[in-house]
Amino acid sequence: MLRLENVSVAYGRVAALKGVxxxxxxxxxxxxxxxxxxxxxxxxxxxxxxxxxxxxxITWDGExxxxxxxxxxxxxxxAHCPEGRRVxxxxxxxxxxxxxxxxxxxxxxxxxxxxxxxxxxxxxKERAGQAAGTLSGGEQQMxxxxxxxxxxxxxxxxxxxxxxLAPNLVEQVFRIVEEVRLQGLMVLMxxxxxxxxxxxxxxxYLMETGCVVRSGTGAELLDSGDVRDAYLGGRAFAA
Length: 239
Ligand SMILES: Nc1ncnc2c1ncn2[C@@H]1O[C@H](COP(=O)(O)OP(=O)(O)O)[C@@H](O)[C@H]1O
Ligand SMILES: [Mg+2]
Prior knowledge:
Layout: E1 2-11, E2 14-24, E3 29-34, H1 40-47, E4 55-60, E5 63-64, H2 70-75, E6 78-81, H3 93-100, H4 107-120, H5 122-126, H6 137-149, E7 155-159, H7 167-182, E8 186-190, H8 194-200, E9 203-208, E10 211-217, H9 218-223, H10 225-231
Parallel strand pairs: 3-8, 3-9, 6-7, 7-8
Antiparallel strand pairs: 1-2, 1-4, 4-5, 9-10
Helix pairs in contact: 3-6
The chain binds adenosine-5'-diphosphate and magnesium ion (MG).
């Protein structure tokens, strides 16, 4: 189980998270929603060790992990699929996938996971030897997801996985997220597409200007006035 208690983070003197508390239990799919700049990506970056909290506690299975280096967090089973499908553009698809498994020692397991990824994402198999930068946006997103899964995480965090994708690919991304969860992984998903995120998740947290302002089941948040207000005029309900 992952737990954030009162976590605060700043970029220089600009506060980005002001005492965020949330938790993710075994097998849960949690959505983090909220307007641009609310602190969603910052939350994920802090969990994955890219940012250090000023105060507060982050525990994973009861052990404090705040401030550990990113590779140590990854080694403990938390993978981060960052915003904007950050694949290594000059490396091939196969090399990108291998990077995901960099901290693993089990050669046979890596090989069989690679096969499984190629089975799940046939386009990546077709393009295994191609530089990742030459893939389409949708293919790069699939690669970023597959790379995160290659670490065999227990928790995978997706930052706006559907952003900028064509509608059929958006659907595919949400299907993959659901499959990942059905395999028993914990999922923490940031999404601008609140409607899709709330219908998929077990529970959700709504963030505003660095704070969690509401949490509950997806259905509860869909019914809540706050959530509708937060997105009035936004694109959250457009999709
Ligand atoms: N690298 C950065 N330097 C300074 N401020 C940043 C940086 N990244 C994000 N911020 C600020 O932190 C706040 C939260 O940003 P972010 O976590 O990216 O929001 P979200 O992902 O919810 O859109 C925003 O006010 C944003 O402008
Ligand atoms: Mg973001």
